[in-house]
């Protein structure tokens, strides 16, 4: 159990010698069958890291091991890339004038036509694109093209699927479906998936393991819930999306003293109380979220957000008590 399929050792790739661009001294390993999400702002080195893992880019230093074998760089083989991995990039690399079926089937050899057909149909079933079988790629939406690209990547005994910004072209409803499908695929087939994204919600929902990348460096590597509860620095807290971030001066306005520069907390850490006397906040906005509300609260000119689980309990312009029970300092 807990077999490591990929190990990344001291991986460094700099595009320019003078200026930091690329990745620096990256170390981590991946358990077989896991979904790993690599999150970082644009330019943080996500695509560079993926390309090094796949063998499309030659690292300056360090190595990538797949099942204990070093992944070869582009200078060491005729066709760059690793036979047991597949990478789906934002441009999908599909033959846009060919049919969906043919795009996927083209990955298989013609030695056994029957097997080729059944395998292709089965993979289309997996990705919910059976209905699109005879359509040309050019006739499909971005989300549909993406499913075809994934089906094509997976059909030839792929052990590791690399996805570069897989959700960027998909609207939010389809996004949820695709996320669920990716998760199911990984669990059903034992496939290992590495996905990179600038959108943390992709990673948090899906991943068994989450890596935070900043300016080419690996800041944090842990379970998503651990990173969410305990971001190691302000960048991570910011990139996770929903945190309330106050400067020291703002925090002081709310009665929170800190020696650090920032105070950070999540809306769900704020307790709303009706008995507590100090720290009165005014409800500036109520954002309806379905089974709860998010409240925008203000006190002494400082705005925070809090969850109201009893939807509709406090209304705009109400004055309420809010206690920031737990917070982080950076
Ligand atoms: P991300 O995928 O996180 O947006 P990239 O890995 O594409 O980041 O890029 C990381 C950094 O390396 C960026 O600063 C980018 O400008 C630089 N970079 C990427 N590719 C090249 C290249 N071929 N030549 C020079 N610099 C590059
Ligand atoms: Mg990129």
From TrEMBL:
Residues of the ABC transporter domain: 6-240
Q: Which GO terms describe its molecular function?
A: ATP binding; ATP hydrolysis activity
Q: Which domain of life is it from?
A: Bacteria
UniProt keyword list: ATP-binding, Nucleotide-binding, Transport
Q: Does the keyword ATP-binding apply?
A: yes
What Pfam families does the database record attribute to this sequence?
A: ABC_tran
Instruction: Please give the InterPro entries that the UniProt record associates with this protein.
Output: AAA+_ATPase (IPR003593), ABC_SmlMolc_Importer (IPR050093), ABC_transporter-like_ATP-bd (IPR003439), ABC_transporter-like_CS (IPR017871), P-loop_NTPase (IPR027417)
Could you tell me what this protein is called?
ATP-binding cassette domain-containing protein
The organism is Pedobacter planticolens
């Amino acid at each position: 159990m807990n077999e490591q399929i990929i190990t990344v050792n001291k991986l460094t790739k700099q595009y320019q010698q003078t200026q930091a661009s690329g990745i620096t001294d990256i170390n981590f390993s991946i358990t077989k069958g896991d979904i790993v999400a690599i999150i970082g702002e644009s330019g943080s080195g996500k695509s560079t890291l993926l390309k090094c893992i796949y063998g499309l880019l030659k690292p300056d230093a360090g190595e990538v091991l797949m099942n204990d074998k070093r992944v070869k760089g582009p200078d060491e083989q005729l066709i760059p890339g690793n036979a047991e991995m597949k990478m789906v990039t934002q441009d999908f690399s599909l033959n846009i004038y060919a049919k969906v079926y043919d795009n996927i089937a083209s990955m298989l050899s013609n030695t056994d036509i029957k097997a080729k057909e059944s395998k292709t149909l089965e993979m289309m079933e997996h990705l919910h694109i059976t209905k699109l079988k005879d359509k040309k790629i050019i006739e499909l939406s971005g989300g549909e093209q993406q499913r075809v690209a994934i089906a094509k990547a997976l059909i030839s005994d792929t052990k590791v699927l690399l996805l570069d910004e897989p959700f960027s072209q998909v609207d939010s409803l389809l996004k949820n479906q695709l996320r669920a499908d990716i998760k199911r695929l990984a669990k059903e087939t034992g496939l290992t998936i590495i996905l990179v994204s600038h959108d943390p919600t992709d990673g948090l929902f899906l991943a068994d393991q989450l890596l935070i990348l900043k300016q080419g460096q690996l800041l944090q590597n842990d379970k998503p819930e651990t990173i969410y509860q305990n971001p190691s620095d302000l960048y991570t807290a910011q990139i996770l999306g929903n945190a309330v971030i106050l400067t020291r001066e703002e925090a002081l306005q709310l009665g929170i003293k800190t020696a650090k520069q920032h105070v950070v907390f999540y809306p769900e850490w704020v307790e709303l109380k009706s008995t507590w006397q100090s720290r009165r906040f005014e409800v500036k906005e109520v954002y309806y979220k379905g089974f709860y509300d998010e409240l925008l609260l203000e006190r002494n000119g400082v705005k925070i957000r809090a969850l109201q689980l009893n939807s509709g309990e406090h209304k705009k312009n109400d004055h309420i008590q809010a206690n920031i029970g737990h917070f982080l300092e950076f």
